[in-house]
């Protein structure tokens, strides 16, 4: 039977921690997934899925992969603090390479995996503001994510691409404890955020929290609601269902959003 394709979604970093969990949730009739990573996982290939062993720093290769695509989900990059040169090469220059390839290929919808660490020096209380927080990175890694957001803004304003920069909080299969109760992003809600982003067609840049509908509500969900993101999971409810006990709500008063990333245990430019 011939597969009828209505849209093609390119996912970079598809073999990473988020990509492995979310990619299966994006499969649906009428959609082809082109998955990009330097360590492909061909076990998930199928008629609707293809793997591409390509670096995001390879502009011509990314242009070929994005040719004919309808949207881009950019998850690839270094996911923690590193020396400046590494983060510049992969997270900043790599994002520019991918966005430029998307632009030349005519891709109109993009999700960028930013991070809470782009605003990690902001107080927890500020996250409840409906207006997106200005960048206050806690590390060079956070700077690289703030730069990613700035690139997304540029490509929206200058080239009319619809871009969502998702400030991803604590992504994991199940909620942990402590701050993770407030900051959890479930795989299901990450997939819902991707779906909202790749359905947009307004030629604007949007900054949204990548977080589930957790209690307590540290994070304003208004920017997510504005693009159609409706998180359905809650860390307290999930923890109760798993353990039979409601975990204590974390106290974020006076603490920075970046948590331990803002103290001397995590030196700027260090590796851990």
TrEMBL record:
Regions annotated as coiled coil: none
Keywords: NAD, Oxidoreductase
Gene3D superfamilies the record matches: NAD(P)-binding Rossmann-like Domain
Keyword match NAD: yes
UniProt xrefs under InterPro entries: Epimerase_deHydtase, NAD(P)-bd_dom_sf, Sc_DH/Rdtase_CS
Signal peptide: none
Superkingdom of this protein's organism: Bacteria
Compositionally biased region (Basic and acidic residues): 262-272
Region annotation (Disordered) ranges: 245-272
CDD domains hit by this protein: SDR_e
One annotated GO molecular function: oxidoreductase activity
Start and end residues of each NAD-dependent epimerase/dehydratase domain: 9-170
Pfam families noted in UniProt: Epimerase (PF01370)
Family: Belongs to the NAD(P)-dependent epimerase/dehydratase family.
UniProt xrefs under PANTHER family: 4-EPIMERASE, PUTATIVE (AFU_ORTHOLOGUE AFUA_7G00360)-RELATED, NUCLEOSIDE-DIPHOSPHATE-SUGAR EPIMERASE
Protein name: NAD-dependent epimerase/dehydratase family protein
Organism per entry: Agromyces agglutinans
């Amino acid at each position: 039977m011939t597969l009828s394709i209505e849209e093609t979604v390119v996912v970079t970093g598809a073999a990473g921690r988020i990509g492995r969990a979310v990619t299966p949730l994006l499969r649906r009739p009428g959609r082809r997934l082109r998955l990009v990573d330097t360590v492909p996982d061909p076990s998930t290939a199928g008629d609707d899925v293809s793997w591409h062993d390509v670096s995001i720093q390879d502009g011509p290769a990314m242009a070929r992969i994005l040719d004919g695509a309808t949207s881009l989900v950019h998850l690839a990059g270094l996911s923690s603090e590193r020396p400046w040169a590494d983060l510049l090469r992969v997270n900043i220059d790599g994002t520019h390479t991918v966005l430029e390839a998307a632009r030349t290929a005519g891709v109109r919808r993009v999700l960028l995996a930013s991070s809470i660490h782009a605003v990690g020096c902001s107080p927890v209380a500020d996250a409840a503001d409906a207006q997106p927080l200005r960048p206050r990175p806690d590390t060079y890694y956070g700077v690289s994510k703030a730069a990613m957001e700035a690139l997304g803004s540029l490509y929206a304003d200058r080239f009319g691409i619809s871009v969502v920069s998702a400030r991803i909080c604590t992504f994991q299969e199940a909620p942990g404890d402590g701050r993770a109760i407030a900051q959890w992003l479930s795989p299901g809600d990450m997939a819902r955020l991707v779906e909202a982003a790749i359905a947009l067609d307004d030629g604007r840049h949007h900054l949204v929290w990548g977080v589930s509908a957790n209690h307590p509500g540290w994070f304003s969900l208004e920017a997510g609601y504005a693009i159609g993101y409706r998180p359905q999971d809650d860390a307290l409810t999930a923890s109760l269902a798993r353990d039979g006990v409601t975990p204590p709500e974390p106290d974020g008063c006076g603490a920075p959003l970046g948590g331990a990333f803002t103290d001397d245990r995590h030196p700027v430019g260090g590796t851990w």
